[in-house]
Amino acid sequence: MLMLKMGFRWFGASDDPISLQNIRQIPGTTQVVGALYDVPVGDVWPLESIKQLKKEVEANGLHLEVIESVNIHDDIKAGKPTRDEYIANYQQTIRNLASCGVKVICYNFMPIFDWLRTDLAEKLPDGSYAMAYDHQQVDSDPEEMLRSVQNGANNYVLPGWEPERLAQLKQLFMAYSDIDADKLRQNLKYFLEAIIPVCEECDVKMAMHPDDPPVSLFGLPRIYKNREDMVKIEKMVDSPYNGFTICTGSLGENPANDVPAILREFIAQDRVPFVHARNIKFVNTEGDFHESAHLSTEGSLDMYDIMKALYDSKYTGYVRPDHGRDIWGEVGRPGYGLYDRALGITYLSGIWEALVKDHIK
Ligand code: DNO
Ligand code: MN
Question: Which residue range forms the structural domain that includes residue 35?
Answer without folding.
Answer: 5-113+180-280+301-360
